[in-house]
């Protein structure tokens, strides 16, 4: 399969010429060590550094698009001054780490630094703040952030598709190339500071979703976590992205991927299943995806707030003064508060329409209820933002003209920079807070509101409340906001339903105080215990657990560009060398050879199921060696196998996983004598599920019934398969059958029918004939073949064998298996069989095979 366009020119767009970024100052403690494991010889091992470090202090590297810094340039001297951004969650999450943890930040600055100043600024940021700046060229920065991130990823992740030119920007490959280049630049900076053996790297948000691929490619065992702060869309939306696979594979190069809600995680897992064919399972309460032998864990935990930071603001004199001012200004009035960014997804206009309807339907609120809408500065200045702003202003004007009068303004719109003190004062005074976004990642406004409503001693005095007065709060929260699931006492609304939102606001201000107190207590208990320190500590603990087995397996990287991934398998698992097995083949004289059919001697994806003439010739040559006993062990029917392999007269066949078996074309088929009356029960049930599941079909074998759903919708097919499995297990509880679920199948077959039983029977037959095997080879590619591997491996300890045979259990494809060896594909299998056939006695007359050289984009 050819490499996709998005990664075909990958190395060009990540080249030094495109990314002429200055190096981090050499005084930076660059500590890299070689992980203690021997290179495996089959791929890339973790690279060795030119320096080592004796530093044993625990270190976390936090990577985000922007550093948690403020920057200001003195126009007089031209010097830069920097300060920490105390409101940044990247800075606040340090509270979740131990005091002796060193935290290094990698990211960009919010200002442009001239090239001649960059080295000096980088050194200053490193010395003063432990920050490593990533200076992107202005052109790359613009296309990366304002282009791909804000014009394509951000709208898509908020469910906005570019259906027409006026509704979002269409995919632009130049912007994608800039995104990849920027991620490569971030990776270079991380590589300069990381100690891959000890450090933990935590990447934040959608700006850096392919960064894990670059880092994993450089250090196969790097300890890497990723947290997405935005929503993750459903598969129906996400699949429209032309580079969907590259981004999914980028995220899967992490060890732990975090989401705010289960919905976001579920969408991601669905995309992995539908687009990459990956299954997930819950392992002791933790969701894990098996990805080429690595387990990628999924973390679901919403971010919290910094309690201390908020509480300190509440005690500021400026906050208390603002509270007194608000209290006086809105005397005898109830306040509903909204605090939102100015963008099309925050639902400000919908909120205003609902408030307008509330005043129309409940005239008793006119003159007594005020909506305070604080608008944070817009993060972009696109056409959509300008239209949203225009609509907001016109709606506010209309409401105030219709319902307002001297001394009463129903809606107060604060569209300017608001200080923390001012916002905290409004939070504290508001009877209700409403978050009405149509789609949002997390949104911490409700959390901040709850803490401010809890108050402080200074705040109580400013509000004229007694110290032990009961606290109340009411929240109206959109069900499409990430914080909604954690606020079970909030009034959840569909922001598009104006009537429902209006009624929710009515309920919020009229509900009895006793219930307000109970809701507040429940929410405040959660918010105060699940703060940002708890979030960071919990994420890092899960990351440490996800990485604990890194050095128990052999790792090597495969794949070009953004298709790169790491294979992680048992240390004893290695590729089966033709020379190695031929050597064993030549020095043995009683050989048992077991071969699967589909996916082993014939490609699984092939439309033509019959073997090629080359395969038939090689099998016939192996069978004609009197020292060989060769069996094809397949789930196929005996009729198909007999027809396809008829030229191989001495080839043994085991059809339908061993229910039917014969040793050659001249011998009769033997069948297990079992009762098959259960088929009358199973067939109508499977037929029912086939009719109810579009794309599924039923396969009727002589000894088994199989329900296939590979062509059905992946989610629905999987759901139906689970239901069918339970259904059949219940009705067949007293029947001598096995009901099992495989890859896109549900199969019912007689008990005791396995490929492993075939191997045991053949080896036992050889022992009884005085020809106990001293060479056993078994090759297969799927789960059913694992029974054969297990069976032949157990023969080593079989007391009936005079000498333990040389055993070669080999799976096709690099994946976790009971086999000790692997071959890459069917081409490798046929090549190996040809090597054995050429070593046979008598020498076979083999036609020269024509091999087509293919380069899979999954291999370097």
From TrEMBL:
It comes from the Eukaryota. The keyword Cytoplasm does not apply. Its EC number is 2.4.1.15. It catalyses: D-glucose 6-phosphate + UDP-alpha-D-glucose = alpha,alpha-trehalose 6-phosphate + UDP + H(+). Keywords: Glycosyltransferase, Phosphoprotein, Transferase. One of its GO terms (biological process) is trehalose biosynthetic process. Gene3D superfamilies: Glycogen Phosphorylase B, HAD superfamily/HAD-like. It holds the Pfam family Trehalose_PPase. InterPro entries: Glyco_trans_20 (IPR001830), HAD-like_sf (IPR036412), HAD-SF_hydro_IIB (IPR006379), HAD_sf (IPR023214), Trehalose_PPase (IPR003337). It is an enzyme of class 2 (transferase). One of its GO terms (molecular function) is alpha,alpha-trehalose-phosphate synthase (UDP-forming) activity. In the N-terminal section; belongs to the glycosyltransferase 20 family. In the C-terminal section; belongs to the trehalose phosphatase family. This is alpha,alpha-trehalose-phosphate synthase (UDP-forming). It comes from Dorcoceras hygrometricum.
């Amino acid at each position: 399969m050819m490499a996709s366009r998005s990664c075909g020119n990958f190395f060009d767009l990540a080249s030094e010429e495109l990314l002429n970024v200055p190096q981090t100052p050499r005084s930076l403690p660059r500590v890299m060590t070689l992980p203690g494991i021997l290179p495996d010889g089959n791929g890339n091992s973790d690279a060795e550094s030119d320096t080592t470090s004796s530093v044993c202090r625990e270190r976390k590297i936090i990577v985000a698009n922007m550093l948690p810094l403020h920057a200001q340039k003195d126009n007089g001297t031209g010097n830069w001054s920097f300060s920490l951004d105390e409101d940044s969650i990247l800075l606040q999450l340090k509270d979740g780490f131990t005091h002796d943890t060193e935290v290094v930040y990698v990211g960009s600055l919010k200002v442009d630094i001239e090239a001649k100043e960059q080295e000096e600024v980088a050194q200053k940021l490193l010395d003063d703040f432990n920050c490593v700046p990533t200076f992107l060229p202005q052109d790359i920065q613009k296309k990366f952030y304002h282009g791909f991130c804000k014009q394509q990823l951000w709208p898509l992740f908020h469910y906005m598709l570019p259906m027409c030119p006026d509704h979002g920007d269409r995919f632009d490959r130049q912007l994608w190339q800039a995104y990849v280049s920027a991620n490569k630049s971030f990776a270079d900076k991380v590589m300069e500071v990381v100690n891959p053996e000890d450090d933990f790297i935590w990447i934040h948000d959608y700006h850096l979703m392919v960064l894990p691929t670059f880092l994993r490619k450089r250090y196969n065992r790097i300890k890497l976590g990723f947290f997405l702060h935005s929503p993750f869309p459903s598969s129906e939306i996400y699949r429209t992205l032309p580079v969907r696979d590259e981004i999914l594979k980028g995220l899967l190069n992490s060890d732990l991927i975090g989401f705010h809600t289960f919905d976001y995680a579920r969408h991601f897992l669905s995309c992995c299943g539908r687009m990459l064919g990956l299954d997930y399972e819950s392992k002791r309460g933790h969701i894990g995806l098996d990805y080429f032998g690595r387990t990628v864990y999924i973390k679901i935990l919403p971010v919290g707030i910094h309690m201390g930071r908020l509480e300190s603001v509440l005690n500021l004199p400026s906050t208390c003064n603002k509270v007194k001012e608000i209290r006086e200004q809105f005397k005898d009035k109830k306040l509903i508060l909204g605090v939102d960014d100015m963008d099309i997804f925050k639902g400000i206009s919908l909120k205003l329409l609902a408030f307008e309807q509330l005043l129309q339907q409940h005239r008793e609120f006119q003159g007594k209820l005020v909506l305070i809408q604080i608008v944070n500065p817009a993060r972009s200045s696109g056409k959509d933002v300008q239209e949203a702003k225009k609509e907001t202003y016109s709606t506010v004007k209309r409401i105030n003209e219709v319902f307002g009068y001297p001394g009463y303004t129903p809606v107060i719109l604060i569209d300017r920079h608001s200080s923390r003190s001012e916002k905290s004062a409004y939070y504290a005074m508001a009877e209700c807070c409403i978050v009405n976004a149509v789609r949002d990642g997390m949104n911490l406004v409700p959390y901040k509101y709850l803490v401010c409503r809890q108050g402080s001693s200074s705040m109580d005095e400013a509000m004229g409340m007694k110290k032990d007065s009961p606290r109340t709060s009411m929240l109206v929260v959109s069900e499409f906001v990430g914080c909604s699931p954690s606020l079970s006492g909030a009034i959840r609304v569909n922001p598009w339903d104006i009537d429902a939102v209006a009624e929710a606001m009515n309920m919020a201000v009229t509900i009895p105080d006793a219930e307000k107190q109970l809701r507040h207590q429940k929410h405040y208990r959660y918010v105060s215990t699940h703060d940002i320190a708890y979030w960071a500590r919990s994420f890092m603990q899960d990351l440490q657990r996800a990485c604990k087995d890194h050095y128990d397996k052999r790792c090597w990287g495969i794949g070009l560009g953004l298709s790169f991934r790491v294979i992680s398998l048992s240390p004893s698992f290695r590729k089966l060398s033709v020379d190695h097995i031929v050597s064993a083949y030549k020095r043995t004289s009683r050989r048992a050879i077991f071969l699967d059919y589909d996916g082993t001697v014939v490609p699984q994806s092939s439309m033509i199921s019959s073997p090629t003439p080359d395969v038939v010739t090689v099998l016939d040559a192996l069978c004609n060696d009197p020292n060989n006993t060769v069996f094809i062990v397949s789930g196929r029917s005996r009729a198909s196998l007999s027809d396809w392999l008829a030229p191989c007269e001495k080839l043994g066949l085991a059809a339908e996983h061993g229910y039917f078996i014969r040793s050659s074309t001249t011998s009769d088929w033997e069948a297990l004598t079992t009762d098959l009356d259960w088929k009358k029960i199973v067939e109508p049930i499977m037929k029912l599920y086939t009719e109810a599941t579009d794309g599924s079909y039923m396969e009727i074998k002589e000894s088994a019934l199989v329900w296939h759903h590979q062509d059905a919708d992946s989610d629905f097919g999987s759901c139906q398969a689970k239901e069918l499995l339970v259904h059949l297990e219940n009705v067949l509880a007293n029947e001598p059958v096995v009901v099992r679920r495989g890859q896109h199948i549900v199969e019912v077959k007689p008990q005791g029918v396995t490929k492993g039983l075939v191997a045991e029977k053949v080896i036992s037959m050889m022992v009884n004939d005085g020809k106990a095997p001293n060479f056993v080879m078994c090759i297969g590619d799927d789960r059913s073949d694992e029974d054969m591997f297990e069976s032949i491996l157990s023969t080593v300890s079989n007391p009936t064998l005079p000498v333990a045979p040389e055993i070669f259990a080999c799976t096709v494809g690099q994946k976790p298996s009971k086999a000790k060896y692997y071959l890459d594909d069917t081409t490798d299998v046929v090549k190996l069989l040809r090597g054995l056939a050429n070593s046979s006695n008598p020498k076979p007359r083999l036609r020269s095979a024509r091999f087509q050289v293919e380069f899979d984009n999954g291999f370097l």
